[in-house]
Amino acid sequence: MTTNLYLKYTWQQFKKNKAALYGLILLGIILLLAAFGSCFSPYTYCGIDMDNKNLPPSFLHLFGTDELGRDVFTRCLFGIRISLFVGIMAALLDLLIGVVWGSIAAFFGGILDEVMMRLCDTFYAIPHLLIVIMLMIVMGPGLLTIITALALSGWINMARIVRGQILQIKNMEFIKASLALGASKKRIIFKHLLPNISGPIIATMTLTIPSAIFAEAFLSFLGLGVQAPIASLGVMVNDALCALRYYPWRLFFPAGIIIMLMLAFNLIGDGLHKAMDVKQT
Amino acid sequence: MPYFFKKFIMLALTLFLIITITFFLMKIIPGNPFSQEQDIPPEIMQSLYSYYGLDKPLLEQYWQYLKGVASFDLGPSLVYEGQRVTDIIKNCFPISCFLGIEALILAIFFGSTLGILSAFYHKKWQGHMSFFLSTLGISMPSFLLATFLQYIFSMKLNLLPVACFHGFEYSILPAISLAALPTAYITKLIKSTMIEILNQDFIKMAYSKGLSQTTIILKHALPNAILPVISYLGPLTAYAITGSFIIEKIFGIPGLGQWLITSVSNRDYPLILGLTLFFSVLLITFNFLVDIIYAIVDPRIKLKQ
Fold first, then answer.
1. Which of B26, B138, B284 sits opposite A125 (nearest CB)?
2. Which of A123, A269, B40, B49 shows its CA 20 to 30 Å from the CA of B286?
3. pLDDT at B103
4. Chain-chain contact of A126 with B18 (C-beta, under 8 angstroms)
5. Which one-letter DSSP state was computed for residue A40?
6. CATH homologous superfamily of domain B93-297?
7. How many domains, in total, are found in chain A?
């Protein structure tokens, strides 16, 4: 009941924010395209057609074709799926590690808290790129590696936020009351602490997704991402760069989609932050 | 004083942990620094290994490295013959640092201007405009912006050089690409704090005293709104002056950014460690400086705990 009210209130606040609504609509359109767009396209993402290389956009090929004659529109749709998958999986893993780490540190406090937070600081000070590249070499490039690497470098922020939030409400009266009534630690963590900090967690997650999408595009751009023939938006940008001078449109479409995808998530995340009244740090 | 002492011990401990973690992590990576040149006879391989001390037990290598670090010697590069890690840093860091500082100046100047404007014209078209610009800035990956800028200004309009690094005009496009994201972020930070502050009593008080708008903004509101920016500037500075791999690759700049990736793929162990250490020291130092500045600027915070 109370959760419903909270959701309703958040939604009401969210609706007032026009920019966030535009973001939601933009994301909706992108999602629909990614899910059903390929039904209307006669091409596959890896179908090679050497007679129709590097065509400019036309009605036959909406976004043109690439250097192997593959339809860029279909590849873009496929790339959106990959980007979304990577972004969402990385955000979920971040959430899992961050919530467990942060809540243990905050709830038990003392030396354990100190040690866990020092470890956070240490990981934070190692360049993320180093961890990602080491992992790439050990595990080999691929989707799984990217997701693991992103989660490994991204959970620290989540852990810090969760810890800060829990420390804030840990000593509030209703927790003390619950303790006095004899509630177990497990019950307090799952029934009282976590639901009360779900707002900031969700808001942080919506901003983790675009940074994960960016990181995937970045890694693919470096040639460390998903491998051919799978198309990700970053790989397509990278391929297009070699021929930028002659076929600029090949860069334009995947790049535009990356920007729109990130814009949508950023607008929504911003709106959620405002609607739930979370301070951005 | 005890605060600084305690903090300093903590920093030293963190650095030690970083060296340890990086040292053992990089030894896990399969491969070795000499396998690029194909088919080295085992005897030569053996002598290379013993020359660089790689045949000793891991713990002894680790101890040797720690001793080196204590005397500010980061060891020789295994792949680039005759170069010491400190030399590579000394040669490449100034270029990245120059670019980074240029980007920082751009970001701070435009970020705070846009931030103040958008807080002040909140809900007018100027406010919407700057909100749109800053959200776009956050959503635009730096490598895409860099490519667009390069395409428009260098290839199409022929206004600025495409790549390389021989003077100030070569640094304009890279600096803009590096500055876009922090500019957008600073705009957002200043805007959100500024709006909160402009509604507070002491600002209303300042208005009722009849102070001019410029005075109120610059003397009363801005010093308060700048606080979150200061804490953001710590890590930002460390990242900015050590160079960005991607921007340096796109614009062909011989900075420090590219070395981290090449060193890992070359398994150039001393170089990996040296660069990581260099970056970590900078990051930790800047965060430490931020703490101090914060305490000086904001009298509500006392350095204790």
1. B284
2. A269
3. 92
4. yes
5. G
6. MetI-like (1.10.3720.10)
7. 1
Q: How far does the CA of residue A115 sit from the closest CA of chain B (Å)? A: 11
Which domain, by its residues, includes A262?
Answer: 16-36+62-280
A45 lies in a domain?
no
Asked, for residue A261, whether it belongs to a domain, the answer is yes
Give the one of B21, B135, B147 whose C-beta lies nearest to A126's C-beta: B21
Would you give the DSSP letter of residue A231? -
Of A147-151, A273-277, B264-268, where does the model show the most confidence?
A: A147-151
Contact B280 A118 (CB under 8 A): no
Are B31 and A237 an interchain contact pair (Cβ–Cβ within 8 Å)? no
Phi, psi of B176 (to 5 degrees): -65, -45
pLDDT band at A69 (very low <50, low <70, confident <90, very high): low
**Which of A232, A262, A267, A277 to substitute to test the interface with B, most B CBs within 10 Å?**
A262
> Which CATH number covers residue A74?
1.10.3720.10
Q: How many Cα atoms sit within 13 Å of B136 on the Cβ side?
A: 9
Report pLDDT digits (tens) over B46-88.
Answer: 777 777 777 777 788 888 888 888 777 777 877 777 788 888 8
Q: A219-242, pLDDT tens digit by residue?
A: 877 777 777 677 788 888 887 777
> Residue A165 has which token pair?
């939030």
Asked whether B52 and B76 are in contact (CB, 8 A), the reply is yes
Is residue A52 assigned to a domain? no
Peptide bond into A229 cis (omega under 30): yes
> Distance between the two ends of chain A, CA-based, in angstroms?
31
